[in-house]
Input
Amino acid sequence: MIVAIDGPAGVGKSTVAKLLASRLKYLYLDTGALYRAVAWAVLHNGLDSSDASAVAGLLPKLSLQMEFKNEAVAVRLNGKDITDELRTPAVSAAASVVSAVPAVRAWLLPVQRQIGQKGSVVAEGRDIGTKVFPAAEVKFFLEADATVRAERRHRELVAAGHSHAIEQTTAEMAGRDSRDRSRAVAPLAPAEDAHHIDTSRLSAAEVVDRMIAVVAAKL
Output
């Protein structure tokens, strides 16, 4: 079974997807990490993330793999483990830009689907239920109040050692929302058959409990 979880930044996708995968004993696919890996490569090659031609030209030089070990996921780019370098503000900002490049989305599509063929998967991102796995047996679309989302992302950044003003985090998130929802290829939008969950006032465990109930009905 493939469980698809979509939604904007700050709704708790990664947290609940990891918990859900752990409870179901499924693989956890963080598609955002794949886009972040491309963004990391763009930055480390000194390219402008908004230069679609330059970004597309870099792709044939990249080899990207995800490794699954004891419920942990490692991202390797050209053999180098870059997992711990993917959550910086700079990479996040660049990922939002490169994810709108059609060539990048086309290049990563088979990578994601290949991982989906390895067994039962909980996949999270922004176009999982609409583009990557449109035939997924269960689809969720998570939402949350904008203020709550900004506060969550701000806490994540601070915990990771990044000194960010909450106002900056809020502005960056608004910009990312706009780009994700307006991009020409696979914009952020709920699948028609997705189950909507507002996570604003729910704990991660409560969200997962609701998801488990939906998944159980499909088993």
Summary: The chain has a mean pLDDT of 92. The domain at 2-218 is CATH 3.40.50.300 (Rossmann fold). The radius of gyration is 16 Å.
